[in-house]
Every structure is written in C-alpha cells, then in structure tokens.
Design a protein that fits this description.
The protein is an alpha/beta fold. The protein folds into two domains: 92 residues, Beta Barrel (Elongation Factor Tu (Ef-tu), domain 3); 125 residues, Nucleotide-binding domain of ferredoxin-NADP reductase (FNR) module (Rossmann fold, 3-Layer(aba) Sandwich). 22% of the residues lie in helices and 34% in strands. It is built from five helices and twelve strands. Helix 2 packs parallel to helix 3. The chain is globular and about 50 Å long.
Length: 234
C-alpha cells in the first residue's frame, strides 16, 4: 500500500551536466522494492507533480533518492532550484519493475535517464551479495551523459557478477565502449547466455519498444522473459 508524506531535502547531487539526484530524509521506515517509483509533488503556486523512479536502493536506509534529467519543463526548473532544507510531498511505492527471482541470470537494456530503477536494483543485488548474474547494456549519446558512471564502476569492482557495456553514439578516445546503437549483434556479443536470461528494459518509450522487437523478433526470446518500464520522467 502506498504511503504519503512530507519529506525534507537532505542533499542535491549533480550527476551530469543535465541530471540531478535529490535525496530526501524520511522519518518513517523506508519500505519499497528496488526498481519501484514514487510520485513527487513540488510545493509552490501551482504545485507540480511527476512520477519518477527511485534511484536509491532499499539498502541505503538513511534516505530516499530520485534522479531527474533537467529539461525546460516547469517541473525540471523547480527541481533545479531545490536545495537542502526544502520540503516536498511524496507518495510511494508504485510499480512492478522489480527483481522477482534473485537466482535467475538477468540483463538490463537501458538508455539515458532510464538507468535510474536499474541503478536501484543493481545496488540492492550488490549490497546484499545475492549472487545474481547481471549484464547492463547502457546506451547514451556521449560519455558526458552517462548517469551513475562512478557508481557502476565501483559496483563492478565489488561484485564480479556484474558486467557493464556502454554503447555510445559519439565514442570518446580512450573510453571503452561500443559505437552506435543497441542492436541484436550488440546483445549477442555482450550478453553471454542471453537466451536464458530475463531482460529488464527501461528508457524512452520508443527505445523500449524497439528493444522488445529485437529481443522477440530477432533473438527469439519469449515475451514472458521481458520486463519493461516506459520511462516518463523527463
């Protein structure tokens, strides 16, 4: 059951040039599953509301975090002005983009800010040392747009069963990546034993639909082995 409460901003973190994370102090017990989302209402005249993925893990017990790509929307402009001590209203948890079977091998296909619930799931698996074998194929335009790069670098070092493959439209000299877009060849090359994995897809709606089509039509995966979330947090 979702709960509604007022939360104080603990910290605002600049993740990339156009992405910020907002950490909220929660007085009550933080009860949600990795990968779920929340409703955030920014107090003002008028109040502004949006549904956003929770980017923190349930193992990070001192705060609840959401992460937002900053655009020209009124909501984004208000997020950009948030500072420590401000208050917001939240309602959570929602969503079924969650890890059902920690024993199963999984793969994540993501683009841009769609990484937020995946960061939550991966961090939970690593912190709990669940033994889940995870491969992340993460697409962005350029290196400067990779969100949570440092977090995933640290998780790979701490947890050998996590592999991260970056796919970039604009490759950078000296940065290991696959140039171009995620396609069937990239998935075959980067995701070992892909026919046996459950795939989690999160990103812009057009990307998610394209990934589903590749997995089902080109790679012959069963639809029941695909979990998706069309990310609307722009």
């Amino acid at each position: 059951m979702a709960q509604e409460l007022t939360a104080r901003v603990k910290e605002v973190i600049q993740r990339t040039y156009n992405v910020k994370s907002v950490r909220l102090e929660i007085g009550a017990r933080i009860d949600f599953k990795a990968g779920q989302f929340l409703a955030v209402t920014l107090l003002g005249n008028p109040a502004l509301k949006k549904y956003l993925s929770i980017s923190s893990s349930p193992t990070e017990t001192c705060y609840l975090e959401f992460t937002k790509k900053l655009t020209n929307s009124d909501f984004s402009k208000a997020v950009a002005q948030l500072k420590s001590g401000d208050t917001v209203k939240i309602e959570y948890p929602f969503g079924k983009f969650t890890l059902d079977d920690p024993g199963a091998d999984i793969a994540f296909l993501s683009g841009g800010i769609g990484i937020t619930p995946i960061r939550s799931i991966a961090k939970y698996v690593v912190d709990k040392n669940l033994g889940t074998d995870m491969v992340l194929v993460y697409a962005n335009r350029s290196v400067k747009e990779i969100v949570f790069k440092e977090d995933f670098d640290a998780m790979q070092k701490a947890y050998p069963k996590l592999k991260v493959a970056h796919v970039l439209c604009e490759p950078a000299v000296g940065f290991k990546c696959i140039p171009g877009l995620i396609n069937a060849r990239v998935i075959r090359d980067e995701v070992n034993n892909y026919p046996q994995r459950k795939f989690y897809l999160c990103g812009p709606p057009q990307m998610v639909e394209a990934m589903k089509k590749i997995l089902i039509a080109e790679l012959s995966l069963a639809a029941e082995n695909i979990v998706s979330e069309n990310f609307q947090g722009y």
